[in-house]
Give the backbone structure.
Amino acid sequence: MFVFRLLASLLLLSMSLYAFAHPGDENSPTNDFDCDGVGTTMVQGLPADLARIGQLMCLGNGQLIMANPDWSWRYSGSFFDTPRIPAGAHDDLMGIPPPYFFTKIEMEQYLDKDARAMSASLATQVVTYTPKVEINKLLEFKLHGNHETIAKLMVALESDSKGWILVCAPDCRPEYVILFEERQKH
């Protein structure tokens, strides 16, 4: 009986930890957000470098960024979860009700030596960020949210068709690392 209780407790604990493993908005109390009714404060599109690999979507709780259909995204520790970057992913938004949306997106580009230095620094901070080649181009996107938060996406390109996204909301954490790769055209 003790073993059964122990296993049941471990199962419940692992399920509750899994629920908080990735940024998400599916457990929010609001599910009827009207993206068309926000007006001019909401971002309507992504910068070209981010739009190449991702797309902006609007769901019941607000906006999120997901993979462009021509690209495959996966979390570094999972093959089964669909990566998404909701506007409500920032740690400071715990307890603040939706809607969540992006109000501004800024981009800074690091090349060659600067990209390699930034990548090396990120690799020491985030154990699941393990590029296989030197990073010669790294893009930093600052995602401003409607609740006065700023999350960062660090997009490290291994090549034109493969790379990494680190979601820093505000900290870059191992469970928020996304690998992306262009899908093969048949």
